[in-house]
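Protocol step 4 of 5: obtain the predicted structure for the target chain.
Materials: sequence only (see below). No template structures provided, no constraints applied. The aim of this step is simply to have a reference model before the mutagenesis design in step 5. Sequence pasted as it appears in the construct record:
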Amino acid sequence: VDMGAKLLCLFLASALVAYYVYIPISEDFAEPWKVMLITAACRAATHLAEVVHQLGLMHHVEALMLITTFEYIAPTSDENVTVMDTEFNNVGVRLFLPRKLSDGLRRAVVYFHGGGWCIGQAGMKPYDCLTRWTSNRLSAVVVSVNYRLASKYRFPVQFEDAYSVMKFFLQSSVLSQYGVDPDRICVAGDSAGGNLAAAVAQQLLEDSEVETKLKAQALLYPALQSLDLNLPSYQENENRFYVVRLWSEYFTSASSLREAMASNRHVPVESRHLFQFVNWSNLLPEELKKDHVYTSPTYGSSELAKKYPGFLDPRAAPLLASDAQLRRLPLTYILTCEYDILRDDGFMYARCLQVAGVPVTHDHAKDAFHGVMLFISGPIELAVGHHLVNRYIKWLNENL
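Step 4 output (structure tokens):
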């Protein structure tokens, strides 16, 4: 019996490993085994967080946050860059200041990390690497922002933290303190951070108190709307449930919103005019539509939208900006990845900006997945992650 039990355990463990590791991997990927391991680790982490949540031990977001804390590194200066943690307007930031002498004023990048508005921090090793390299290679001042996170804080707190850091930094006294050229400043971010960067760039256009104009915005696989959660890229991704959960968590922990979003029935009929801004049948190129058929939205409860109006707010959904606003935005870099649930958001925004006359560089990585630029340090490094980081920094160097 003992031997049988051991064999059964071995079989179950093997099945579990196989379930996590053996997933269909596209031949587009250059390092398929690494991609399998990354996918397996991510699935394991989210499933573990869900189990802990269901057992009532800890909120699933807190469990995931615990996992990301293992990636934290203290602010460490090196021969090229001085690094320190400080606060701008009572919001935590990690500051990267180049050491080599500059002939004139420096460029600057304000960066917002990803993590679904719920997890992540500027001190995570991949973000520390990315912002450190940016500072060193551009000889630029980089401000990496630790905005407050859900589930403790809800929209618009994350946006307000991001905006208040940007507004503080753009004051002429602060720019001169750090030797920054007011004509060479970029806002950037990935995923949820790309959402914040896009929203901050839009809001600055409406703020008469801010005299300094951004030179550029760089949005790395950004999340840009939660009105239609059934775009082709959502339909093609198995982690749709998890992404919908992060979106709803940004606004509330109430299951009513999460369930409505999961069935794509959360936008009330009185907001139907907003669907024109996210109508993928008009905004996506033919090759992304494939055999997907656009269906008219199914409207949701007005009560839900009254209670949690955030998902209809352009500060959470930058794709809802008017043409008049879009026209005034700075030159833009957008990175999208083929195997990414947020792919279509980036494509639609690139199209809207181009139509509005904004100079856009849209890099589409056919051999990459969401979060790929996090794999530039640590146990599993991806060549494509390094390649895309280099592309992003090269664009900044040429345009900032």
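Step 4 remarks: The first strand starts at residue 81 and ends at 88. The CA atoms of residues 88 and 165 lie 6 Å apart.
Proceed to step 5.
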